[in-house]
Amino acid sequence: MKKKQVLVVEDEQIVANDIKTILHKLGHAVSAIVYSGDDAIKKAKEKRPDLAIVDIVLKGNMDGIELASILRSRFDIPVIYLTAYGDDKTLERAKVTEPFGYILKPFEERNLNKTIEIALYKHQMENALKQSEERYRALYSTMNEGVCLHEIIYSESGKAKDYIIMDVNPAFESITGLKREMAVGRKASELYKTKKPPFLSAFANVAASGKPTSFETYFQETNKHIRLSVFSPERGKFAIVYTDITDRKIMEEALRESEEKFKGIIENVRDVIFRLSPSGVIQYVSPNVKDLYGYAPEDLIGKHLKKTTPASEIPRALEALKGVAAQRRIRNLEINQRDSRGKIIPMEISVAPIKKDKKLIAILGVMRDITKRKHAEDELRENREKLMSFMESAPDSFLLLDKNLKILEINRVALKAIRLKKEEVLGKALSEIVPDLKESGRYDRYMDVIKTGKPLFIDDFIPHPKFGQARTSLRAFKVGDGLGVITSDITERIKIQEQLNRTLNELKQKNVELDDYTYTVSHDLKAPLITIQGFSDILLKKYRGKLEKDAVQYLKRISRSSKRLERLVSDLLRLSRAGRKTGELKKENIKDIVEISLKYLEASIEEKHISVKYPSEFPSVHCDKTRILQVYDNLIVNAVNYIGSQKKPKIEIGWREDEKNYIFWVADNGPGIKEEDTEKIFKVFYKGSAIGSRDGTGIGLSIAKKVIESHMGKIWVESKVGKGSTFYFTIPKL
């Protein structure tokens, strides 16, 4: 199965990376991670993902709600909102965009997986529904039969007293002579100007029982015979299909005048019309049988129905013949048939006897290909089985309710919690199982989910035998025209989260203490080191001629080691200070900082004959000038030390900008950095394996990293061996 492509729009990098990891674990692919609405739109246009997870709160001039609206309207991409909180106004705006789910921070892998599955399934079903509605509307508007939708009006005692016309199609006007604007919205008694609405009893029975009926009538206004096929789309409502049978009536009169010979049946319908002898021999079949069976009518006429009936279905077919011989109508019999290639086709057949002088002379029938319907039924059954499997394997309580909050399904975890058997629960109202459902307000909130489709999330405390007060998380969401309710015990998760928060706070405090300790130790070590270095230099200058050769070498080694150790202590001291913004953030021009750094390093640059290039204009940013100068000092020194033995060594300093940040860089054409070193070089004391100087302490890049991160930016390197290195860092725009 092809992996679903997911676009993640989240400006918190840690959260985005967590989502990416979970999505990969769940078998999905991340098409891109972006941090702004504009970037999300570009990636959506380029990648065409199957789903987008969007944080409601985004930095920049476009929030997640506006982005979701664009993704939905422009690219038809379903959106799941990611949010930690939301005020009513924001949630009302979010609801308008018709999101396919919500994920609350902090989120669980299981919740993310469920929300994604439901969103993808909902989007698939929505597209299928749109296609179905478009086909229905096209058929509704262009079909030759008139269609009229009605709703029964009941008295206070519950008795049907009238019905109102809700909608009609164009064919209704031509068949009945009644204009749409005249009919829609009016009561039947007013429209037809009768004291009692026509056929009220029959229509009310269909609307109440759901059992369809059909009969014929005559419209004097248009001089037409009409067949009314009545069915109920939902309780209290009914629809009528008006078929103009005037021509058929005339034909029937002609048939009666010619000894009821079977001539001409409507042949432009999709259903196949056929006529059999009482023994089952095919006497007539409509031409469109070729489209369905692959047989021409002449291939079947004169043959027994066994020709197109599989052997396993012949007993049922013969039994149906006996029923018709007993002058019974057979309606909507589902039976398999076989086409000319041997392919089995599920069919729905209705047959009726044709009598003459009370004697059966033939059997007239209509058959319809129900392959698509059977596939839909199989798919529905399969989906139900999958849902039940998911419910039973879920570690949480799971309820499936209908639109009246009656229990359709319940899993074993929920049954264990309420200590009831499944047969004691199914079909009952939820209020019978949860006595305080209405008093607690949850009944109204559940009904609001069904009405609006907006999911419900509730965290609550309930008595628990182990924890005293257990923390539960309840999620209610619309399923079809009903409701799904999942209840999870999150007591342990809350406890773990609280412990994690305490541990993180303790860790932050320890880091502060460690920085203070490093600063103190580094500062206190400098004084004795300077003393050792000073006295060793004095001994070398004053007593060089009086000391033995070995003693002079020892003093030189002491001097070199003390100087190296002093540099290391100084760098440690700078590192301990690097993450602290000791200076006030002011608007500073980066060009001034770059030129100060180059001036300071001028001797080293000239010594190696390095050409330096930088633009004449730089932006001004809010920063600690001293700390950013440290960054440039370390990056330029790093480039100088590791420039190698290039014939034309060069360093390029530059910048660019995006929507949120200024991006600065220092590039060299040195030997480059091995790929395995690009992440490690920012660690303390790590010098890498590139060709070049080894005199540094390995702390400079760590200092640069701490300074940039203290300015809410990031730093990284891009390099290839033999192609040089480019160090980048960002400073946010304010």
Short characterization:
This protein is α+β, with helices and mostly antiparallel strands and 734 residues long. Strand 9 and strand 10 (237-244) form a beta hairpin.
Number of strands: 27
- How would you write the strand order of the largest sheet? 2-1-3-4-5
Mean pLDDT: 80
Radius of gyration: 41 Å
Number of contiguous helices: 23
Report the major sheet.
5 strands, parallel
Helix content: 40-55%
End-to-end separation in angstroms reads: 46 Å
Low-confidence stretches: 259-265, 463-469, 690-694
Class by SSE composition:
alpha+beta
Strand content: 25-35%
How would you describe the shape? elongated
Give the tags.
elongated, 734 residues, alpha+beta, 5-stranded antiparallel β-sheet, 42% helix
What this model shows, in words?
The protein has 734 residues and is of the alpha+beta class. It has 23 helices and 27 strands. Strand 16 and strand 17 form a beta hairpin. Helix 2 runs parallel beside helix 3 and helix 20 packs across helix 22. About 3% of the residues have low confidence.
Task: Write the topology of this structure.
Elements: E1 5-9, H1 13-25, E2 29-34, H2 37-47, E3 51-55, H3 64-75, E4 79-83, H4 88-96, E5 102-104, H5 109-142, E6 146-154, E7 160-168, H6 170-176, H7 180-183, H8 188-191, H9 200-209, E8 213-219, E9 224-231, E10 237-244, H10 246-257, E11 272-276, E12 282-285, H11 289-293, H12 297-300, H13 314-325, E13 330-338, E14 344-356, E15 359-369, H14 371-393, E16 397-401, E17 407-410, H15 412-418, H16 430-433, H17 442-452, E18 456-464, E19 468-479, E20 482-489, H18 491-543, H19 549-578, E21 586-589, H20 590-600, H21 602-607, E22 611-613, E23 620-623, H22 625-641, E24 650-657, E25 661-668, H23 700-710, E26 715-720, E27 724-732
Parallel strand pairs: 1-2, 1-3, 3-4, 4-5, 22-24
Antiparallel strand pairs: 6-7, 6-10, 8-9, 9-10, 11-12, 11-15, 13-14, 14-15, 16-17, 16-20, 18-19, 19-20, 21-23, 24-25, 25-27, 26-27
